[in-house]
Amino acid sequence: MSGSAFPVQGAGRGIASPGLALLALLIGLFLAAFLVIPVVTVIFVAFQPKGSTGFTLINFVDFFSTDLFRRSFWNSAYVSLMSVVIASLLALPLAYYTTRFEFRGAALVQTLGVIPLIMPPFAGAVAMQLLFGRNGTVNLLLDDWFGFKVPFMEGLNGVIFVEAVHYFPFILVNLSTSLRNIDRAMEEAAQNLGCSGFRLFRRIVFPLAMPGYVAGASLVFIKVFDDLATPLLLNVKDMLAPQAYLRITSVGLADPMGYVISVVLIVASLLAMWLSTLALRGKDYATVQRGGGGTVKRPLRGIDRVLAYGAITVVLVLVLAPHVGLFLLSIATIWSFAPLPDGYTAAHYARVLSESGQYITNTLIYAGLAGLIDVVIGSAIAYLVLRTGMPAGRWLDYVATAALAVPGVVLGIGFLRTYFGVTLPSGQSLAAFWGMIVLALAIRRLPYALRACMAAMQQISVSLEEAAQNLGATRSRTVRRIVMPLMLSGVAAGFVTSFATAAVELSATMMLVQTQSDAPLAYGLYVFMQSPAGRGAGAALGVIAVVIVGLSTYVSNRLVERDMAARSEAKE
Amino acid sequence: MISRRVALAAAALSVALAGAAHGQAPSGKVTVVTSFSKEVTDPFKAAFEKAFPGTTLEVQNRNTNAGVKFIEETKSNNGVDLFWASAPDAFEVLKAKGLLEAYKPKADGIPDKIGHFPINDPQGFYSGFAASGYGIMWNDRYVKANKLPEPKEWEDLATAPYFDHVSMAAPSRSGTTHLTIEAILQSAGWEKGWGIVKAFSGNLRGVTERSFGVPDAVNSGQVGYGIVIDFFGFSAQGAGFPVKFVYPSLSTIVPANIGVVKNAPNAAGAKAFVDFILSEPGQAILFDPKIRRLPVRTASYAKAPAGLPNPFEFKWLADPKSKFDVEKSEKRFAAVDALYDQLVTFQHEALKAATKAIHDADAAIARKPSPEASRLVAEARALVARMPVSEAEAASPEMAAAFTGGKEKGPRQAELEQKWAAYAKENYAAALAKAQAAQQAAK
Questions:
Q1: Radius of gyration, alpha carbons of chain A
Q2: Residue-wise pLDDT tens digits, A446-458
Q3: ipTM score above 0.85
Q4: How far apart are CA B221 and CA A338, in angstroms?
Q5: Residues 6 or more apart whose Cβ sits within 8 Å of residue B85
Q6: From the CB of residue A226, how many other CB atoms can be counted at a distance below 10 Å?
Q7: pTM listed for this prediction
Q8: CB-based contact (8 Å) between A431 and chain B?
Q9: CA distance to partner chain B, nearest, from residue A335 (Å)
Q10: Which residues of A touch B69 (CB under 8 A)?
Q11: Touching check for A338 and chain B: CB below 8 Å?
């Protein structure tokens, strides 16, 4: 670390060139067209008296004078904070051991660690209940053997448990990337000075990895704050996001309270984002040399080795349990009030594979394109914010992040409202064009990629770029030859999170799918899961989704590792 | 099999002839927005496309609310021909917004009413194609393992053994549950009806937000009993789950419907599909083990599978108590939903605590009778049952305006809700105290 007296905001502040201004403008237009305008067409209702036009804040007064909403607000804040704590405990050992030590199967552990993020809607929920529910496998066995049950899935603590298991990969992915990017010379220097073990981690490694940790932790916080599926699955309704969803989908589009809650959610998310940038402000996390160039990974010996593998096994078993349950469900004949299914069959897979090939192709195309759009825009915004000091950059960051707090159903309705009247040359409505599903997914998952790109760029020392520019390289050449290669692993992490989560998105997709042939996998899964006979088939489709997304993640993790290895060799 | 094929061919021929008479044989893509699962739509799609070569049925699955909203948002450039769903109120919404087209199907053998409920919309904007009743389904393994009884009536669900074993969807989330609650309110009366509803609601394990969440939880054994629409029970049996189903005597049978959307791009195809599902072969598809719905065509029951009831033979349907007043229901629709949410869904912990204490007090009295304790328990029950609004208030125009944003000056929805929630919280706390006092008195 080149000393905290060197504020990163000041670094690289230059005069915005016309090219950069144009870039900012284009991104601004994109966000305006596909995020701000569609959302505003829906949520302006929050500022109107019910059933008439005009401007009022009375709805916000009502919000704060209603017990239920106040209780929901505090519950949401509490659950989000606790989820960050538990998720950090799950993610830290996985990230630290796999990046800092000679660890067999590091790529595999990293991949398995991302899988909880790919929890297919409904199917994942059913599988969780079958394992951890009141009469799930674990509790039925506990009751049988010891005569008691553990309420894993009850109340706010149940929400915290499920959310932490589901979203801890945000911290894992971002923290691992940060850890890989730290110059190992820092650790070596500390070790030479006699520092080791937990002290080394606490004083040197973790502080240097802060950008990644904060990026992940703030994502977990906001995501949990805005998540409605998990609380609803556990029948917890007094939290904010479920309240917004319940109001909008049951009381109706004309009811202002649902949108008031949405506005509160958006504001709270931005506040959390702003606090997390404050936490990093005034410190420099950049190191001149990238991680690959330092010492080799440390070996694990004796008891440490046992402990490390033990801790990782425990975490993996816990976080992968829902997917084991999903797999069992997909090969089960009937599974009802029993620790294990009554019988096993491959019929569900046969049925899904014969009926759903189209869903799988569509998902790969949609989520892949959305992920690409996200990393391109994410790196561009990160560059504008961290390297040009253009105020517009910050604003783009805030607006893009706000997407996290926009309920999917609001975005979906907004898209329909804004674009349904627009017809394509073929006579088809623009909103019915499959590309709109890609754009909706890209907008919804942009914050993930953005945080990853931001963390990656924060760790690159600006002196490298200055050196290149002093040697006569143009700005665009510097970006191409210096910044982009150094950011690669961060960008890959961003792509993986965006892609993986886009592949199982449902709430906005549900409004936008117009024909079966354009439908993605999550929609097919929803269709299956609506009937008792479709449960197994839905689970089979869920398993296929997990395998596909898992494989893609594994491949991109391997690519990053190979790239890092190649670069270390080149330097030696 | 052969007879079915012949019947299909005959139906195809007759409808084709009818179509030819109109000079418009159905062809091309027929787009239907539906809340029904693949198990329901796939057999209809296959049979329809076979009966009318050259047509394809494009099925868009959306839940009922999303489907209504979709049709509303896309009316400027409508691409949907049909709306096909259970809840009659969803069709009422579409009809009120002028999004449906009137069509009188060419079908015979379908009576005007089932019990007291009209099968088709009197103005012809939508038609009933299957009858659905509401009742209680339960997981046999769960019930046996926990040594629980088998229920017969709604009131059974309010008794002590059922505490924490029952599940139901919120009426504001599920049109079918709304009808169940409304049917109980109409047959038992406002005050007594709410008493029944709140008493069994205190026994609920949870109020779910998805109608399908209830049968799902019963099928997998997470809860013992579910308050559901009949075909959830029958189709779960058809899929092999260890579940049973019963109709309580205070129930109602209402039709599941289909309607042609206004400005349908393929109106001829849409009408052909409506005629098809009301025809003999179309109605026979409802008996598929994975569908198990009750046809509206009375003659179809001659070929019904064993175990499926014929609702036209239900005696209680003729009972004047099961008369269902659609107009009354519509007037207080939003109020009933909001009342349930504020008094039960969002105060469920307090309601459950009071209910548990009442059950415990009853048990104490059974061990050691005490008139003082009995009086206290009765007071606790009355406190739980108390309603913040009368029947007349719930149906008043001021109340409707609070929910729809109409012109009448009255309290805002948020104010009403806060008031009701506070009222419920206070009464449940008082009921809890009385029930606990009763336990003391019976010690």
A1: 24
A2: 998 998 898 888 8
A3: no
A4: 8
A5: B34, B35, B36, B64, B67, B91, B256, B257
A6: 22
A7: 0.81
A8: yes
A9: 6
A10: 253, 413, 511
A11: yes
